[in-house]
Structure formats: C-alpha cells, structure tokens
Amino acid sequence: MNRHIRLLTFDAFGTLFTPRESIGKQYLELARRHGLNTLSCDIKINNSFREDRVVALRNESKEHPNYGKGVGWTASDWWAAVIRSTFRPLLSPAIPIPESLIQNLLTRFSTAEGYKLFEDVLPFFCKIRELRQSASNSSRLFSTLEVGIITNSDDRVPSVLSDLGLHVGHRRYGTSTTALDLEDPSHVDIDFVVMSYDVGFEKPDRRIFDTARELGSKGKTFEPYECLHIGDHFQQDFLGAQAAGWNSLLLSRDQLAEENHRVKDFLSLAQILEHLR
After folding, report:
1. What sign results for the dihedral spanned by CA atoms 21, 24, 30, 36?
2. pLDDT in tens, 74-120
3. The dihedral of CA 199, 204, 209, 210: what is its sign?
C-alpha cells in the first residue's frame, strides 16, 4: 500500500450495498400486502411510481432539507412524508395509506431486508481486517490504517451496514469519544461513519471530507494527501475527494454510467485491494 495512506474511506450506497430488488418493486409488493391491490407491478404503474417518487424526494429535499433535521424531524419522519407523497398520486383520494405500510417500509430500508452487499465487500473487509491485525513487515502499513464511511445519507447507514454483516464502530460526528475508547479496533471493519445528516454538508462539499479526516485521526494529524476515498460517483466521490486534496479511486459498479469520464477506474474491490497492496 502507498506508505502515505493513513485514512481509507468509502461511499456506502451504490459502493458497498445496493437494493435487493428495485425500490419500486419492493414498495409496490409491500403495498399490495397491506391491501392496496390496485397497485400492480405493470409497466405503467412502475413508471408512475418512479416519477412520483422522484418528485416526492425533490419536494421534501427542498421544503425540509437534510431529512428535516432543521425543523426537528427524525429521518424516519422525513421518509414517512416521502412515502406518503409517493403513493398518494397512485391512489384514489378515498383510499388511506396504511400507517403499517409506512412503518414496514421504514424498517425494510433500515436493515438487510431491503439491501444486499455487493459480493466482493465481505471478502475485501475480511482481508483488510486480517492485514490490520498482522504484525508482518509486508502488512505493517495496514496496522495503523483508519477505515471510515462518508455518505450523503441519514443516520440509518450504520445499522444497515451492521445488519449486512460488517462490524461497524460507534464513532461518528457529534458523538463523545470518551465511551468509545474501550472499543477494540481489531474487531472492527469500519472505525467511523460520517453522514451528511450529522454534518450538514453533502459530498462533494470539501467540509464533509475535512470532517472525516478530523474524525478519523482521533487527535492525530492526517494530511489530505494521506487520505484515500473510494466511491462509485464521479462528481461526489472521485472529484469531491480530489478537490479536498485527497487521493481518490472510482469504483465503477455500473460501467455504462462512468465510461465517459476518462479516468482510471476499478470494477471490483478485489482490484482495489491489489492496487492498495
């Protein structure tokens, strides 16, 4: 590994995990289980659902930015509003949206029920954990490596990652570190998580990268050139990290989406692991 890299961070959604099935299919299947039988999975309904969800997300983001945190909402409150706004245009005004449906959707997309890891994620982190625990000269540089997440998301990301089988530390922005000193880093895959929900800024804003650098250093000093960020989004992850002075790698989970950026990209975490070593 590059001897200068002391902090390694990842994007979460689209880089480490992805929906088990399309979000539209999961929403509509649960809706029918809750008695909304007029919502079939035909092309017309699916297209309408996608359009309505995009509108609902845009409107809520504009009216209640950062998941409504500024007006005292929880992320669950914000997503419940999105769910209601998504389904309402698809239903007759006389048909209520069951609260149990909303709660089931909130639960599903806070756990492994709604998401899955990309198949290369667990092997990658198992190997990183092994290298971090090793005292051999060949992997000595990994022993002091800090590993984190930088995500434009709400506070459900740590629970999703944990439910998917990764060992996630409790360190996050705004959390006192006193109680975290007892945490054994040798049993943790991800030392800390930085979420836009906590910080108030989203990638590619350099302030979220600066926050991650400070949180990851645990009182030490990490220079930007000692940090490496890996993600699947060209603007938010690759260019955002570079603008903050970091190193960055582009993980192309969707080759077609990134093929025109003319940068060196990677198709799997296995390739990235070889690059790091």
Report:
1. negative
2. 999 999 999 999 999 888 889 999 999 999 999 999 999 999 999 99
3. negative
- Amino acid identity, position 154: D
**Which tokens sit at 55?**
């509108």
Q: Note the pTM of the prediction, 2 decimals.
A: 0.90
Q: Are 246 and 227 in contact (CB under 8 A)?
A: yes
The strand pairing partners of 148, in sequence order, are 9, 192
pLDDT in tens, 38-78: 776 665 667 788 888 999 999 999 999 999 999 999 999 99
List alpha helices for the chain, DSSP H: 23-33, 43-63, 75-87, 99-108, 121-133, 157-163, 196-199, 206-217, 240-243, 255-258, 269-276
pLDDT tops 60 at residue 137:
no
43: number of CA atoms within 13 Å, CB side? Answer: 0
Place of tokens 């109680």: 179
The residues, ordered by sequence, that sit 6+ positions from 98 with a Cβ below 8 Å of its Cβ are 34, 35, 36
Residues 95-106 have pLDDT tens digits of 999 999 999 999
Provide the residue type at 261 as one letter: H
